[in-house]
Design brief:
alpha+beta, eight-stranded mixed beta sheet, seven-stranded mixed beta barrel, 36% helix
């Protein structure tokens, strides 16, 4: 015959198995979060492809072909030597001695489906000077031209001109000179809501398309220093970055966007981020890089941490919330001598899983904080009514309040970074001490009413 002790052991063993099943349910909700985030990214990419993609800009560069001749003496088997002269043509680039870039970025949101996609437009003012070596003006120089590059030609909304000294040149696309490179990016994330273990910096690799615009130019003999200026009116989405082609490159960016993520091989020397927007300044010298097109820097104008990342992070604490609620319910069982059966435990656990689905649904339309509050209150009220129906005891209100407390505890844990583990461990220790105090005079299990 099954004793009360055997019944209790089997019951709580099944509760442990139930916790494992609920963890699996949380993973299913997490998969749904991934699907929603993927759909959001597809929407962002779709808007970017029609407005304009990420832009990486390069200032003016003088490009020229150099003609040289090599002579080679060939010996034949008949003892006669022949002299062969070969013509060789090499392409050379002359980078600015000084390049200054100033741009004021106008950021705005385009609404598509249920998402707001950040896009921008700016007029980047390039200025500086070239130092012209004597060899560039020699008779063996051919095809002298000035080049600038962008990542997406679709984003240029005004004709591009470069002024060298006093002469103005109109630049047009050069399809044969376009290419693509893969850059390594380090991001410096600024956000009021940080969830990653190391949110300050992230590394990734990304392919950037380089579209070249150029124009033939004429350099007069005797030119030693040539000042230049250019105004590049361009629009884009997600990010704006630059190639440091000058021997000394200075870039200043200002915007009303107040949640920037600085990225690239160089982070700003000076920056200011507040509610009104941000300003940042970079300075890169020739000694800091070998290939100017092998490095870049700039800023992302997208939300560093999305609502889906926040929801996914909260789900990771979901199993802890379920364990705490189940533990509180078991303690109430022993104290009040009221029984909660396995099916009712399952309903309680599924209600807590549903909380995360509600959170995901609300966060599509509301801020994450407000979504979390609404879903928490709804879940706590529903479970309070359920506990009241099960226990028919005032402890039901205590259990309902604990559900809300545990959910808020999970929210606070998500907001912490360095001290999250310490805070969580201490709070769990306090909860354990409370349970030990409440159960110090508890009667044996056999006294629990199982009828």
């Amino acid at each position: 015959m099954e004793t009360k002790e055997d019944y209790s052991f089997i019951k709580y063993l099944i509760v442990v198995v139930l916790v494992g099943l609920l963890w699996a349910c949380l993973q299913i909700v997490d998969l749904q979060v991934d699907d929603r985030e993927k759909y959001m990214q597809e929407t962002i990419d779709e808007v970017g492809s029609t407005w304009s993609l990420d832009q990486c800009l390069s200032g003016p560069v003088i490009v020229y072909d150099k003609i040289s001749f090599d002579s080679l003496t060939l010996k034949s088997s008949k003892g006669k030597d022949s002299l062969v002269v070969r013509k060789k043509e090499t392409t050379n680039e002359l980078y600015p001695e000084v390049m200054d870039v100033k741009c004021d970025v106008d950021s705005k949101s385009l609404h598509r489906a249920i998402y707001d996609v950040n896009v921008y437009s700016t007029k980047a003012q390039f200025s500086g000077n070239f130092k012209i070596p004597a060899e560039v003006l020699g008779p063996d120089t051919r095809n002298v031209r000035v080049e600038m590059s962008v990542s997406d030609l679709k984003g240029i909304y005004e004709q591009l001109y470069v002024t060298l000294d006093t002469v103005r040149y109109q630049l047009n696309p050069n399809e044969s000179a376009s290419s693509s490179i893969t850059e390594s990016v380090v991001e410096d994330v600024y956000s009021d809501y940080k969830y990653d273990s190391h949110p300050a910096k992230k590394k990734k690799r990304k392919e950037i398309r380089t579209e070249v615009l150029d124009s033939p130019i004429t350099l007069k003999k005797g030119m030693v220093e040539v000042p230049f200026s250019a105004l590049l009116a361009v629009k884009g989405s997600n990010s704006l970055s630059f190639y440091p082609v000058g021997d000394a490159t200075t870039v200043e960016v200002k915007s009303s966007y107040n949640n920037p993520s600085f990225k690239g091989d160089f982070l700003p020397l000076d920056r200011n981020v507040d509610e009104k927007g941000f300003s940042a300044q970079w300075k890169v010298l020739k000694i800091n890089r070998t290939n100017p097109y092998g490095v870049s820097f700039g800023v992302d104008l997208i939300q560093p941490v999305t609502q889906y990342q926040k929801t996914s992070r909260s789900i990771k604490y979901g199993i802890l919330v379920i364990l705490l609620v189940f533990l509180a319910a078991i303690v109430v069982e022993f104290i009040t001598k009221k029984r909660i059966n396995i099916l009712q435990y399952a309903v309680i656990g599924l209600s807590l899983v549903l909380f995360y689905l509600l959170l995901l649904s609300f966060s599509d339309f509301l801020s994450f904080g407000l979504s979390y509050l609404i879903a928490s209150v709804m879940t706590a009220l529903a479970l309070t009514g359920y506990f009241r129906g099960i226990l028919k005891h005032k402890s039901a209100y205590l259990l309902g309040a604990l559900v809300l407390v545990f959910l808020m505890f999970s929210f606070v844990m998500m907001q912490m970074q360095v001290y999250s583990l310490l805070t969580g461990s201490l709070l769990l220790f306090v909860i354990l001490c409370v349970i030990m105090y409440l159960t110090r005079n508890m009667s044996p299990v056999k006294d629990l009413d199982v009828n």
